UniProtKB/TrEMBL annotation:
Keywords: Membrane, Transmembrane, Transmembrane helix. The keyword Transmembrane helix applies. This is Heptaprenyl diphosphate synthase. It comes from Aromatoleum toluolicum. InterPro entries: Hpre_diP_synt_I, Hpre_diP_synth_I. The chain crosses the membrane at residues 61-79, 91-111, 117-140. It holds the Pfam family Hpre_diP_synt_I.
Length: 149
């Protein structure tokens, strides 16, 4: 919750482009306790974060929910990939791409009834790559430190 609220205070150069810092927690929960617990954490974060920020049931809430559901579905599938080659970093990147995909599809279907919304894909893909990598690396480092510490 703290990361969600803190992230809302960060000035963003483009609406909708956020670092997704709270996803670090979701990745750690996924690795330690499994997909069901990660779903609870992620959805609780979406609902409680929106409530705390006064955005419950506003368009941003539904965009966040759509992104989270797409991300969680992707993580549920990706968990079955060989852990030898797919760890926190790759899972984070997959989840970040699914998140923007879910948001863009909902935005296209509901908020911007024009295919022009998809011109934003390169910008969001770059953001998903950068933030997905960073969040995955932070999650991996935190999990590594916990195991060896």
């Amino acid at each position: 919750m703290v990361l969600t609220v803190a992230e809302a205070a960060i000035p963003l150069p483009l609406p909708g482009v956020k670092p997704g810092l709270a996803n670090i927690v979701t990745l750690i929960v996924l690795a330690r306790w499994g997909w069901r617990d990660a779903v609870w954490v992620a959805l609780l974060r979406v609902f409680a974060g929106s409530l705390l920020l006064g955005q419950l049931f506003a368009p941003g809430f539904f965009l966040s929910l759509a992104g989270s559901l797409a991300s969680l579905a992707t993580l549920g599938l990706a968990m079955h990939l060989p852990r030898r080659w797919f760890g926190p970093v790759s899972l984070s990147v997959f989840a970040a791409f699914a998140h923007i995909g879910g948001q863009l599809v909902l935005a296209r279907l509901w908020l911007v009834p024009h295919d022009g919304v998809f011109y934003l894909v390169p910008v969001f893909a770059l953001a998903a790559t950068v933030f997905g990598l960073v969040n995955g690396l932070v999650a991996a480092k935190l999990m590594q430190g916990r195991v060896s510490g």
